[in-house]
Design goal:
This protein is of the alpha+beta class. About 30% of the residues lie in helices and about 25% in strands. The strands form 5 sheets. A 6-stranded mixed sheet has the order 4-1-3-14-17-18. Strands 5, 6, 7, 8, 9 and 12 form a 6-stranded antiparallel sheet that branches. The longest helix has 26 residues. It is globular. The N and C termini lie far apart (about 70 Å).
Length: about 350
């Protein structure tokens, strides 16, 4: 055996070892795969209603409203993906691979991620409850100053945390109300504001400036609940499920539980989307994987946040209909129209993407 042949034979196992090591080495990527779906109108594994109510009559009807989830690989050091795992998900039309920094912060632990998800889940449930009660006619939310821009008319007059009660003599409960009321004031004239600050009512005055063709006073307006709600709602979701993305489905399920008849017409409807106290539906992660999970669960209709519409159209949704849901109210009306006629003209993601 020549020296060259011997060197070649010795190099083969070393080369194989290097290949195996490279293939099994954790890489800085995170995988998304379709997760489970949960019928929030149903019961948990112990037979307990997921939505429990005190202070209002409940109606338990047929049909399903399914929240959707995504299986996301864990942050380091417990979570890691090697080349084989990443290639499998990258080649799949139902899974996805993202750079690590797009999902987690460096140094973020599994425990920190779980705690953050639990906090977001609680906030999501609170907002969903308030929105559902508002949809039923309860007055449970109010407009609040979320921020004041420096150098604007409101700077030095309004403060973050001020509750807006009346603007230009009109009662307001949302940012849209505030914009509309300010818009009624003649250019150069002050607008009178009635606010609540530190529990006391105050009357203030601000003269709007015209910016981008509209009179503005320079505040960001949010929506918050007024305090203790007239109906006590408890949502019992497995604590291992976290995050804010089920807000829309929670609000619809609460509304359905508190109203006679089946909102879904007995069908299975799924969806996703964050929810703020004003009823707006916000974007989420893993939309394509959630659509796959809903499709496999037999959903006929899927509610999509407007900001996720373009990405949603790339999912293999088959015959399931995708409906854009800008607000909880819009989603409820779209469901009602669909129950009446499955071929009804509904808000479409295709319209958004064009």
């Amino acid at each position: 055996m020549t020296q060259r042949t011997l060197a070649g034979l010795l190099a083969v196992p070393l080369l194989i070892g290097l290949w195996v090591t490279a293939a099994l080495k954790p890489l800085p990527f995170v995988t998304y795969e379709p997760g489970l779906t949960v019928d929030v109108l149903g019961t948990d594994d112990d037979g307990k209603e997921i939505i429990e109510v005190e202070g209002h009559q409940v109606y338990r009807d047929e049909g399903e409203l399914r929240m959707t989830t995504v299986y996301v690989s864990q942050p380091e050091p417990k979570g890691s993906n090697n080349l084989f795992e990443l290639m499998r998900d990258w080649l799949s039309d139902e899974d996805a691979v993202y750079p690590y920094e797009a999902v987690y912060q460096r140094g973020e632990t599994v425990e920190q991620n779980r705690e953050e998800g639990a906090q977001e889940m609680t906030s999501s449930q609170d907002a969903a409850t308030a929105v559902a009660l508002e949809e039923l006619g309860y007055d449970v939310t109010e407009a609040v100053v979320a921020g004041v821009s420096k150098g604007t008319p409101a700077d030095g007059v309004l403060e973050a945390g001020d509750v807006l009660l009346r603007v230009a003599g009109v009662a307001v409960t949302s940012g849209d109300d505030v914009v509309a009321a300010v818009g009624t004031v003649e250019e150069g004239r002050p607008v009178r504001l009635e606010v609540r600050r530190d529990g006391e009512r105050r009357e203030l005055s601000v003269t709007p400036e015209v910016t981008d063709g509209r009179p503005q006073i320079g505040i960001q307006v949010g929506t918050q609940t007024k305090g203790e709600l007239p109906v006590e709602i408890t949502i019992g979701i497995d604590p291992s499920i976290g995050g804010p993305s089920a807000g829309l489905m929670f609000s619809l399920a609460i509304y359905d539980t508190l109203t006679p008849g089946s909102l879904t017409g007995g069908a299975t409807i799924a969806g996703t989307g964050t929810m703020d106290a004003a009823g707006n539906v916000g974007p989420i992660g893993g939309i394509q994987q959630k659509i796959v999970g809903a499709r496999d669960a037999g959903a006929e209709l899927f509610l999509v946040p407007p900001d996720n519409c373009a990405e949603a159209l790339g999912a293999p949704y088959d015959d399931m209909r995708l409906v854009r849901a800008d607000t909880m109210h819009d989603a409820r009306e779209a469901i009602a129209a669909w129950v009446e006629d499955h071929d009804a003209d509904l808000p479409s993601c295709k319209e958004t993407s064009e």
